[in-house]
Amino acid sequence: MTTAALLTARAAPELAPAPPDDLPAWLRLAHARGLRPPALRALLGAFGGPQAVLAQSFADLARVAGDDAARAALAPPPDSRAAFDERVERTIEWASQANNYVVTLADAAYPQALLTMPDPPPLLYVKGRLDVLQARAVAIVGSRSATPQGIEDARRFARALSDAGIAVVSGLALGIDAAAHRGALEGAASTLAVIGTGADLVYPSQHHALAHDIAERGAIVSEWPLGTPARPENFPQRNRLIAGLVRGVLIVEAAMRSGSLITARLANEMGRDVFAIPGSIHAPLSRGCHRMIKQGAKLVETPEEVLEEFGIAPAAPAATAARKRSGVAANDDRSRRAEAPPPATASWASARATSPNPTPDEDRVLAALGHSPTTLEILASRTDLTGSTLQGLLLRLELAGHIETLPGGRFTRIERS
Predict the structure, then answer these.
(1) In what order do the strands lie in the sheet with 100-104?
(2) CATH topology for 130-316?
(3) What CATH class is the domain 328-413?
(4) 74, 167, 363, 415: which one has the fewest Cβ atoms less than 10 Å from its Cβ?
């Protein structure tokens, strides 16, 4: 079937990447400077394939896509011919390795969701499972400098969505992205990492193990040539691809100036749903979420609310149900202990001293506390501090006026204007 036919009437997926003899032409056009994806898509639809496009005259190409597009399509590779040939050989070698694919607009494996974008990338580098590209998906994105509560929320929502059969898409970044991928891997479905580097690189470097797990159970996707390093200008374009792959985007934590808000805006422009988790009015990383809610994003407090929007019933697999059953007794015991304040806190409501600067250990507790009421058990798990040490730090923080104790054995920060 020709590229033109595939662009207008998609066949049932037969997961086959582009043949090697077409690959040089695809690489030349996909990465030609100044050739925008909509123009290339128009040329492919008119002439039937990348080799046919390169065989046309300037006038024929210009008649379909304009002079600038024709000039870009017929220009020699931006690097030397030898460098381009080396890139082709490197790409063919990479694609010959197990679970590495180059997927083009002409392939049935190309994600159907991206075809609804105004500018779908003509070529994708995929490492992992091709079938995941067609899965129902929701993106979970947020701050790289996430709070402990944000990390827990991202992981919990991702695991619940995964258990319900929804693939979780994110960007492999620190913070919320990594938590979303890990939560999805703990569930029944899969996860997609859309990256801003070449598919042969991992950024940030500390996510090598996570990237390996994603490639085993899901997929890593990039539209950048192999070897492309992390550049700031690549990530807004990466965010556009995240928005295009999914049915909705969930913002967990985001500052007012955040790449996550770019993802949400692009998703909204593409007709995708946008969800946001609210937080404290004092928390800087809640302000981006609150801004999106004011602009029409759906406020959600549970994963079930996201699933309800898509008409999907939450469902936990047997393994997840067993995991939950095994943890019931321990959780109940921890809850009972947390409901009563520890003996050392009985007189914590005394008058507070003038607030000194917190010590490093006290700063560690404040960071773990975040901006939401938190129990002693949760603080202990976040800080790895022993009970007596943690209680002593909490006492000093309360006497200094940094925190206060709430009913039920919970603690909260005192926000200062």
Answers:
(1) 100-104, 123-128, 219-222, 191-194, 167-170, 137-141, 248-251, 273-276, 298-299
(2) Rossmann fold (3.40.50)
(3) mainly alpha
(4) 415
